[in-house]
Specification:
Elements: E1 12-15, E2 18-22, E3 29-32, H1 51-67, H2 70-82, H3 91-101, E4 110-112, E5 120-122, E6 125-126
Antiparallel strand pairs: 1-2, 2-3, 4-5, 5-6
């Protein structure tokens, strides 16, 4: 495990329509949506600013992005909850299309799985932890 800090305290990055901030206090990385007054105001703490923790926050952001859009992703989210590394066919393209429709920059970390199902992969691996 590499504990090298790549996101120093007080700095933040954008991912999808979320922010990952390394707080100045001892909260570490926090995932949230700016100007939100609902559950998206604080979506979890992810530890110190290492690449591994940032990647975990980004994976959670991807899932929260889908949860916030049930009209597009309800089946995908339920399938992912039911069985590890499951989802729906062509979910990668649906995610990409929703981002385009909402003018959200599509992350380079999110890729298309290498099977006919075109699942959402993160850095070349299934979204769920192994």
């Amino acid at each position: 495990m590499n504990n090298q800090i790549v996101l120093p305290k007080g700095e933040s990055i954008h991912f999808l329509d979320y922010i990952i901030m390394n707080c100045l206090n001892n909260d570490g990385l926090v995932l949230f949506k700016q100007n939100s007054n609902n559950y998206e105001y604080h979506l979890g703490n992810f530890g110190i600013g290492t690449q591994e923790n940032i990647d975990n926050a980004k994976k959670f952001a991807t899932l929260f992005f889908m949860v916030a859009r049930p009209e597009e992703f309800a089946t995908t989210v339920v399938n992912k909850m039911w069985r590890l590394n499951s989802g729906t066919q062509h979910e990668y393209f649906k995610l990409k299309n929703v981002c385009e429709k909402e003018n959200i920059q599509f992350p380079t970390e999110i890729t298309c799985g290498n099977s006919v199902n075109c699942m959402i992969y993160f850095n070349g691996k299934p979204l769920a932890p192994e």
